[in-house]
Structure formats: C-alpha cells, structure tokens
Write a structure and sequence with these properties.
Blueprint: E1 7-10, E2 13-16, E3 26-29, H1 32-37, H2 40-49, E4 55-66, E5 73-79, E6 86-88, E7 99-108, H3 109-112, H4 116-126, H5 141-157, H6 185-191, E8 204-213, H7 216-222, E9 228-235, H8 238-259, E10 270-272, H9 276-310, E11 317-323, E12 325-334, E13 337-346, E14 349-350, H10 361-364, E15 369-372, E16 380-385, H11 389-393, E17 396-397, H12 407-413, H13 416-425, E18 429-431, H14 435-440, H15 449-458, E19 462-475
Parallel strand pairs: 3-4, 18-19
Antiparallel strand pairs: 1-2, 2-3, 4-5, 5-13, 6-10, 7-9, 7-11, 8-9, 8-19, 12-13, 14-17, 15-16, 16-19
Helix pairs in contact: 4-9, 5-9, 6-8, 8-9
Length: 476
C-alpha cells in the first residue's frame, strides 16, 4: 500500500481523510511494515465501507487486514439504525460466526509428548475435517429448527458438553433474535450432516503449548501457565452460514438496484436495518450464529472424549468461545452518550475491556479473552480486551495472522506433503484429509503473526497475555 495516500497519526495508526463519497474517515491499525505489505485492495475496501449509509465514527481495518468480499477481512464498521444505518451480508462474511473456542487442560507438555501421534490420530478420527466433511449427527427438520434457535444450549441439552460451558460463550451460547424460519431449505439441507465438523480452509483443531506469559495477572484469571496445554477449535457455521450469505447477498443486490442505492462496489450489497429484507437477514444470521455456537460446542465434547481416551483422567475446561464474523447490537459511547449500534466485525474479534458487564465474573477484571490464530507452524496468541479499545475500534481486535498470498499462489510455492514433513521436524504433527489444503495453509502464506500481535498490543486494541506453539494440528 502506498504510504503517500495515508496520514500517519501515530506509530500504529493510519488515517484516510474523507474524500469523494466517504461519510467518515477510514483508519488502519498497523506498523509501517504491515501497512506497506497490505494489498492496495485493503485501501479501496476500507474507504468503500466509509461510504455506506449510517456509518458511525470511522471504517476500521485491523493489523491483519487483507482483501475480502466487499469489506476487507479484518474490517470493523458500526451503523446507527436511527441514522439510516444498514446491515451488510458482506460485512459479516460467508462463514457466519466463524470463531475460536479455547479449552484449558491442565496437562503439561511432558504428558502429551509421548502420545502425540496417538492423540493426533484420535482427534482426527473424532472430528471430521475437510471440504464437505460430514459427522454422525443427522438433524431432523424439527431438531434443525431447535438447534438454530437454541445454539450451544441446544447442544448441552442433548448431552454435548457441560452446562458450565455456557457461561464461557459469548451471548451465553444462544443468540437472541434468531429466526429459524428465515433460514432457507437449501441452507438447512447443507447443514443436515455437518454438525460437529471442522470444514476446510483455515479451520483447525490445534493442541498448543503455552510458551510465554506477558500478563501474569490476566494469565492467572484465564487459568494459563507456561508449559501447560490448551486446545483451540477454529470453525463456524459451515454450509448453512455460507448459503445464508450467498442468498442474502443476491437479494440485497437486487433490492439495492430496485431502490437506486448507488454503491462503489456491488459486493457491498446491503439493506436498511429497519427494512423487511434487513430484518430477515438479521434473523437468519442470528440463527447461523447459533449454528456455529452449537457446532463448536459439539466439537468441544468430541475433543474431551478423544483426549480422555488417549490420556485417561484428562479433562478440558472452556476458557472462552468468541466469534469473529458477526454483526452484533452493542451500546457504545459516541460524542459523550451511549448509542445502540449494529457493529459488523469481519475477520475481527470482539475485545471487551475489563469490567464489561457481559463478561463472566471470573474473567471480568482481566477483560475478555481474545484468540488470535497464527498458522500451523507459527505462534498463536491469547490476548485480553482493553478499556482503550472501546474508543479505538468499538472494542475490536485482530483475529489471525492474515494471509499474505492467495491459496493459488501458496499451491504454486509448496507441496502439502513437504509442509507436513517440515512441520514434523519442528515438532508439530499434522493430520489432514487434503494435502492440497495443507499447501494452501502453509505457514509462509501468512503474515508475520508476531508483527500483527505487536501492532494490536501497541495500538491498544488488545494486550498480550500468552503465546502458544502448536504440537498437533487437525487441519481441514
């Protein structure tokens, strides 16, 4: 990205002044190296979002930002329904409520290392992964509707996991306002056999060792200690969410054309929040959020079963489960008064600071856990939300390292089998149904996660708590 088009307002903040049809400025959080390496498409997309009706304060991009569909991945924008604000399917993304669930085991690396291969095999057998992966659960029409309304609570009621888990999931594991009847038959069909599955792409289940602590107080509150093992589950609403995104993007584009709404990019198709189409999308999207909550809850249950089979007596407690592809109604202070806003986060994680009333009491003083996945061969991080993040980007932070090259480019540079061998030499065991998928997710295809984390921390979006290194990765 060309620096001359940006105003540098601090070491980690870059501003694009309103011009053309922009209603608000655009702000990108990054250091100079990250900003130079960002695709010019990020500049285009973050400024395009700033033209949308009812946008509040600014259009934001996180340090891991890269090109996406309409909105940049790593994009954040909030809209006021009282000012003609919109809801955008592209601002949520196709994998609705994709997120990360992190579970704490209390195990040490020495417990896992002797049985690492066996654990990898057990997890790979227990949790279906890959494109079109299907599980053993088959939902009837009635159960599908109940799942879309109940989320993780539905899963717990059916024996998947523990009731105590619900306190450690955003929204208590059930998104209010879900309207299952707005979810199409086709979306339901796609999800019929996909509950409890990882899917493909960058989704994973990863056994990780905590190798460093940056904030001892927050680490204690989160139950984290150096040398201990945690497990991260990264996935979303699978085929159902993708189908909802596809259908509503098409319907929004048709409606925008009928209404004469001029957009700089047709991928920004949107609807007024208070319109009939906007309300239908919100109801269907919230149902997809519940689908993702239920999916990760089931996978957490399968993980616990596999873990105890390999390591008898081992257990895993849920630290937190939070999404990074959503639109949520949240109260934020604007110009000295609270306003109820529809906050779109696409490839960006909610990062509520210390004291936020929605956080479970054991975590409240430290702030919300924020999970940032690296790649199969690099560190991941657990961060904590900060009070300052409220005024930086509506309490939002990055969600991953961010791609530095396309999947096609990655396949040209690496063979999946070579990546598996290279990571094995580093001590990371990979299991995947697709060597093509492994090549696409090669560590070299991603940005430097350390730079992304440093920029996120130093910009005040979230603060470092713990660094993690992968031991086992189940990759879709």
């Amino acid at each position: 990205m060309e620096l001359r088009r940006l105003e540098r307002t601090s070491r980690y903040e870059w501003r694009i002044a309103p011009h053309g049809d922009m209603r608000v400025p655009a702000i990108i959080y990054a250091d100079e190296g990250l900003i130079r390496d960002m695709d010019d498409k990020v500049y285009e997309q973050v400024t395009n979002v700033a033209t949308l009706p009812g946008i509040v304060s600014a259009s934001y991009a996180m340090p891991d930002a890269h090109w996406g569909y309409g909105f940049p991945i790593g994009g954040v924008a909030a809209f006021d329904p009282q000012a003609g604000g919109i809801i955008s399917a592209g601002g949520v993304g196709f994998d609705i409520s994709c997120g990360v669930r992190t579970m704490v085991t209390g195990l040490a690396r020495g417990d896992v290392e002797p049985c690492k291969e066996a654990l990898a095999d057990a997890l790979f057998a227990a949790v279906p992964a890959g494109l079109g992966s299907r599980g053993d659960i088959r939902l009837s029409e009635e159960e599908m509707t109940a799942m879309l309304a109940g989320g993780a609570r539905w899963a717990v009621d059916r024996g998947y996991g523990l009731a105590a888990d619900l306190d450690r999931i955003e929204e208590g594991g059930c998104m209010a306002g879900a309207t299952p009847e707005y979810v199409s038959d086709r979306a339901r069909q796609r999800q019929e056999r996909e509950m409890g599955t990882l899917g493909s792409g960058n989704h994973y289940l990863e056994v990780q060792e905590i190798v460093g602590i940056s904030d001892p107080d927050a680490a204690r509150a989160f139950g984290l200690a150096v040398g201990e093992i945690v497990v991260a589950i990264h996935c979303g609403s699978r085929g159902l969410g993708h189908q909802i995104g596809t259908e509503f993007l098409r319907d929004m584009a048709i409606e925008d054309s009928r209404l004469g709404l001029l957009l700089p990019d047709r991928e920004l198709a949107c609807s007024p929040i208070d319109s009939a189409l906007g309300r239908r999308y919100l109801g269907a999207m919230r149902a997809a959020i519940n689908c993702a909550f239920a999916n990760r809850q089931i996978i957490g249950h399968l993980l616990r079963r596999a873990l105890s089979a390999v390591l008898p007596g081992a257990a895993a407690s849920l630290l937190f489960d939070v999404s990074h592809n959503t639109c949520k109604v949240e109260d934020h202070e604007i110009d000295g008064r609270p306003r109820s806003l529809f906050v779109h986060r696409k490839g960006a994680t909610r990062a509520f600071g210390p004291g936020h009333p929605t956080l479970p009491e054991p975590l409240r003083a430290a702030g919300q856990p924020v999970f940032v996945g690296g790649s199969m061969g690099t560190a991941s991080w657990i961060l904590a939300g900060t009070a300052a993040s409220e005024n930086r980007a509506f309490s939002s932070a990055c969600h991953g390292a961010g791609r530095s090259m396309s999947r096609h480019q990655a396949r040209r540079n690496w063979r999946g089998s070579d990546v598996v061998e290279m990571l094995a030499r580093r001590g990371t065991v990979i299991r995947s149904p697709s060597m093509r998928g492994v090549a696409e997710e090669a560590p070299g295809a991603y940005k430097d996660v350390a730079a992304v984390i440093d920029a996120t921390h130093n910009a005040g979006l979230a603060r470092k708590v713990a660094e993690l290194r992968p031991l086992v990765c189940i990759k879709g």
